[in-house]
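Example 3.2
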Amino acid sequence: MLFLAETPALNLAELAWPFLCALATALVLTPLLRRWAVPLGLVDKPDGHRKIHKDPVPRVGGLVVMAGLLFTTLLWIWWQVSSSSSDLPPIGRLASLLGGVGILVLVGVLDDRFELRGRHKLLGQIVAVTLVVLPGGLRVDQIEFMTRPIPLGPLAIPFSYFLFLGAINAANLLDGMDGLLTSVGVVGAVTLAVLAYLSGQTLTLLLAVALAGALLGFLTYNRPPASVYLGDSGSMSVGLLLTMMAVNLERKDDAPLPLALPVCLLFLPILDTAAAIIRRKLTGKSIYTADRGHLHHCLARAGWKPAHVMILVAFLGLVTSSALVLAFRWRDDRVAWLTLALLGIGFVAFDLFGKSECRLIYARLRQTFSSNGSTDGDSSSMQVRLQGSGPWEELWEELLAKALELNLQGVTLDVNMPVAHEAFHARWKRPGIKLDSDKCWKTELPVVLRSMVVGKISLQGDPQDETVWRVLAQIQPLLARFEQMIQAQQPVKGPVHQLA
């Protein structure tokens, strides 16, 4: 069950000073770091593909947040020591927690500067989480779902790693528009401060109030139109800090961690990440593939300005936070899960986000359960327009007709043009036939525009039916037509903001 302790005797002055300290640090430090970021190369450069802002923008958010937290925490420790207070936590544990955040900020800074490969970035994240989980002691031994406690046993450490790494990367993926993730972080930090106040968690209360102050100060420069970005160092550290405080909140009396707690705090990042994984996996792409199917992209295409998106995100954060506080007070997490479910359904029902992913799931299920004995070309095919209005269906019909003519066994058409808001995916596999993977041939024909791969046609066949060179010769006119269609698509003009 959700844990509720007595309210600590804290006055407004004791709550105000860490907030004001972190706020002032961020307000003073952000313009200084913004100026130093350019010669250091800590800038986000437009690439003409998915990042369409006009000029390079500094990425120093992680350094600002870390400085605000560290300065406030050191002042608090000094005050506790000088006053001989008994509220001071073990310094070693506190150092491990802040050290984990510090390593993550360092990894983010290196990624912002040198663009680390995915596996190197993940390795740095694992090192940071290891400090938090092992010497830091933030391990989840049991969870609570729908009022039922679930002991994790030997899965406690793996689940803890999954929870922290998932939060880090979910926050990182959502950071794609001016002020978006910063607003999520501010609302989440304030929510944690309220819950920490109710449960008597002094350290969590201090860190939550300081984080809210640091992010609010940074938001002054990060709101649309942003003059500075959080960067990977900032987005990853925000995800880690919110999850750390959520886990620490439920440590009294070995209470289980309600899954609704971190999910409510990071609902939008989690929703966006889940949709991205579905979208990329079901279209055969790497999960690291850049596209413009994220939440902020969908809202921008619907006509929402960055400032309006930021306000919407803050409002939704207040809704989930209110549900979380009610669940905390009522000791029943079902109200939180019901709120999250209604919000998710609302996104799809009002065509704000998630409809393309739902169409992908439906099309894949329909293809999977189609009649195995059918020879109709459509019975085992799927096509989904993810974004845009290009005439890709016409090209797909020509490609599918040519595949049937050449007796191919499978064909895939994929279009991914983030800068033009165009994305289309279609695939077909001849029903009732299973090919030996050692005997069949496969080839992939990339489509390149301005030195960037923006589409591909994948073919699969049996060498006994048709030789590869004859197939390629027959497909070549279609490929040329594909490239002409790509050339004709003009980038969508709209508000200039950070895109990820």
